[in-house]
Amino acid sequence: MMEVHDGAELCFPQLLNTSCRKPLISWSDAVFLCFLLSSVSVLTVSLNLLVIVSISHFRQLHKPTNLLLLSMSFSDFIVGFVFMPGEILRKTSCWFLGDLFCSLYIYFAAIALCSSVGNIVLISVDRYVIICDPLHYPTRVTVRRVKLFISLCWLCSNFYSSYLVKDDSLQKDKYFSCYGECVLLVDYTLAYVDLVLSFIAPVTIIVVLYVRVFVVAVSQARAMRSHITAVTLQHSVTVTSRKSELKAARTLGVLVAVFLMCFIPYYCVSFAAGNILNSSYGILVPCLFCFNSCLNPLIYALFYPWFRRAVKLIVTLQILQPGSCEANVL
């Protein structure tokens, strides 16, 4: 019993019976974790800022698909700016910022998680329509409609995150937790509802849509190869357009695949641990989720020439020149 109340192991030694114990992590592991997450956090914030500035500044990029990528980059920016620093504090030391900042951290972390899922679902729907119903894509998927759905995505994420914080406050009133930690407490009913709404339903939609997109894309690629030698000049333009659409589908397919590989382990382990965003299940899985937000801009740079051209104009400060928003980056 004396070891439990050893002041050296408590976050607040003066509060022997109500203080949390310090995280059981070695000094070397703490330094490594701080360096890793800090580096990934800075890289995530920087790269996603480049995406945000690129799509926001250049008018040529104001297209439905790019607006979805812009919304995704905002989610990734929140992960790098809020979620990662919060994880460093929670995993390597006691939480000394108080309940208010803990609630704000949970709120923004939940927004980043929910909006990421929503954006990936919207991206999947966008690719499904342009591949499976290309003739109606310009009329069905307009900039105005995409902005509307993006706004609804963020509004729902905000509402859901606010409800999580409110429920967390009610749970903490019922079940007192020690001082010096920042965790999210939810009841089993909300946990199972969250499992369906934030995990099972969206992942099912994403997988079903992309299986359909993959089947149609393969059949179209075969059709193009079989007729490529007998097309007219006018038809060759159509074939080139279809090739561009298929390439875009493959690119966003990689984006979705990477997201699922990083998101599914995070959510499975966090739910198995009994909480949604808590730290009792180790370090590797949340780091994997954070790393996904850093990978997305690298995927853009690898597959999208317009992003590389836009970054060049941003880094060289050419975007400060008058009329730079009309520059040709496509």
TrEMBL record:
Pfam families: 7tm_1. Signal peptide: none annotated. It is a multi-pass membrane protein. One of its GO terms (molecular function) is trace-amine receptor activity. CDD domains: 7tmA_TAARs (cd15055). It is found in: Cell membrane. The keyword Signal does not apply. Residues 47-300 form the G-protein coupled receptors family 1 profile domain. PROSITE patterns: G_PROTEIN_RECEP_F1_1 (PS00237), G_PROTEIN_RECEP_F1_2 (PS50262). GO terms for cellular component: plasma membrane. The chain crosses the membrane at residues 30-55, 67-84, 104-125, 146-165, 195-218, 252-277, 283-303. InterPro entries: GPCR_Rhodpsn, GPCR_Rhodpsn_7TM, TAAR. SMART domains: 7TM_GPCR_Srsx (SM01381). It comes from the Eukaryota. Keywords: Cell membrane, G-protein coupled receptor, Membrane, Receptor, Transducer, Transmembrane, Transmembrane helix. Belongs to the G-protein coupled receptor 1 family. PANTHER family: HISTAMINE RECEPTOR-RELATED G-PROTEIN COUPLED RECEPTOR, TRACE AMINE ASSOCIATED RECEPTOR 19P-RELATED. This is Trace amine-associated receptor 6. It comes from Channa argus.
